[in-house]
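Input chain follows. Return structure tokens only.
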Amino acid sequence: MGLCVRSSRLIGSHRIWLAVATVAVLIGCNPRTITFPSPPAQEAAATPKSVSATATVEDGFAQARLEMVHLYIEGAGIQNEDVLRAMRTVPRHEFVPAEYLDQAYDNHPLPIGYGQTISQPFVVGWMTELLEPKPGEKVLEIGTGSGYQAAILAELGFLEVYSIEIVPELAANATVRLKSLGYQDVQVRQGDGYYGWPEAAPFDAIIVTAAPDHLPAPLAEQLADGGRLVIPIGPPGYYQSLWQFVKEDGELKAYDMGGVSFVPFTGRGAEAAPAKTPP
């Protein structure tokens, strides 16, 4: 449930640079409007109007999705082919409110109600790549929102996906939406994500889509050895840093990936725990 990425410092095999034009889009996050083509006259005559209009809109969404990935995901340096495939496949327009359908494939976040957002597509791709997902792994997402990030993880086709959402209405809606779109195996729980999902732990990867001001200790404890944890950390209402933690021999190695801006991490766990920023 994040907002706009401010910078990106990728590690390992990831690209450190972004194309100048793409960076301008990411920083500004200015919305654009997608205009879907009208059906050709001959098709309209041969096909019932409602069917023709629906097919045209769906074709428009599919084309817009491919353009989104080409320009803002792959074009910004995301290289993981599984992640790119998932983002070309998952219909983001199914995860946004009806009033924002014309912006579903723009590279900026959108409101989903209850003070939450669906994250910027680039951020979703970036964080998913930073998880370094591998076949057969178990992944925990904190902050289900509308369910888009969980759908991307499930679409990879080789992960066991768990997701926690603190807002009851969002958790209920996401559960129905994911199942209706065929993501039957995603397990969604309503609750305070600060405490993780201890009975399903350990997790090979954990992704957090809201920003606490410190790393939640229960999540660090529930990360398997060799596991990766991707989380924005920083004060609410301003830029935070996106961190990738890697657990090796029981110790966490921390990598600062760059500036981002996310909605605050809410719940009693985050409010009660003392703040402790990464080294």
